[in-house]
Amino acid sequence: MQTSEKFLYHSFPRPQNGHSDDQKALKILESIFQSGLLLTPEIYKFSEELNDGSGGPEKIVVQNRLCFTQIGEDELSNHAKFFGNVSLEFEVSQLQQAHVCPVFYLPQDSKDLIWRGAFGSLLSRLAETHQLLERLQKFFEYSSNHSNSEEFLILTNKGDSFPTDIKIKDLHFLLSMLNDGSQPFSEQLGAIKGLSNLFYPIENTKYTDKLGYYMQREWRMISNIKYRNKSLVNDLTTEEKDRLLELDKKYFDKEVIIPTGTFKRIDLCRFLRTINGKPITELIKRIFVPNSILSETRDLLKKYDLEIELCTSH
């Protein structure tokens, strides 16, 4: 059975200290049945190499993503040792409709997280373009709410104020002209965020060796892309946040620092509930679980009236 070219797998939960948590796996599976697939934030920091060989200003990249792996069914057993012994199987064509695509792993030999050469320049320019579009978006939102204002714009930076000779209505006109014929700044910003999410440094060999990164054949769905001015993912409800905090409070309640402020990880998560109007559960082709939770998984399928083929892990 040639599955490596046809299917993508989403596996969970990642083993801790070499041990799998079957009950946690069941709770995650039930959450997927209830709400869809969860996108979680990952943050990495880097700096670009300067002319003298030192690192420039630190840049922070926030990747809100959902990961899949393109492997054959016969490879699932080894995959589960690192990424979890419950796997959901999807057809590639179905997930491509949610703009799931392969990840680009970039070589990173430096232990000090200073990116050298063309890759460092590429990621740095993406980070700066992201920052620029974010500022333009904020200016545009503010000026749109005061588009007839004769008042002069006052800029602030770290608590300091800087008066300008620019009227707010003139700023709105200028930004509207600059963006004429293009998608809204918010969509451009989402696209840059999404593009940044598809690059990942190879500096963490905790779960696999360097070649293993390429062999994973990882694909990702990213949260920032908008299609026809609509987000493909949704915010979490209060009830959903409570369920996830109960599942893993240490992880989801942790505060993380990103360029726009400090947030709890749970508040940065998003759900992919549907693809082209179909619930995620309708797109799951098969579910692979260990024998130890086969019966409980059947009960969950029955509880949510789902007809998904159930298989035991190899």
What does the secondary structure layout of this molecule look like, with pairings?
Blueprint: E1 7-12, H1 22-35, E2 37-48, E3 59-69, H2 76-83, E4 86-91, H3 92-96, E5 101-102, E6 104-107, E7 114-115, H4 117-145, E8 152-157, E9 160-167, H5 168-178, H6 185-197, E10 199-202, H7 210-215, E11 218-222, E12 226-227, E13 230-231, H8 238-247, H9 249-252, E14 255-258, E15 261-264, H10 265-268, E16 270-272, E17 274-275, E18 278-279, H11 280-283, E19 286-289, H12 294-303, E20 309-312
Parallel strand pairs: 2-7, 6-10, 19-20
Antiparallel strand pairs: 1-4, 2-3, 2-16, 3-11, 4-19, 5-11, 8-9, 12-13, 14-15, 17-18
Pfam families: AbiGi
InterPro entries: AbiGi (IPR021223)
How would you describe this structure to a colleague?
This protein has about 325 residues and is α+β, with helices and mostly antiparallel strands. It is elongated and about 70 Å long. The chain has one domain. Strands 2, 3, 5, 7, 11 and 16 form a six-stranded mixed sheet that branches. About 25% of the residues are buried. It has twelve helices and 20 strands. It starts with 6 loop residues before the first strand and ends with a strand. It holds the Pfam family AbiGi. InterPro entries: AbiGi.
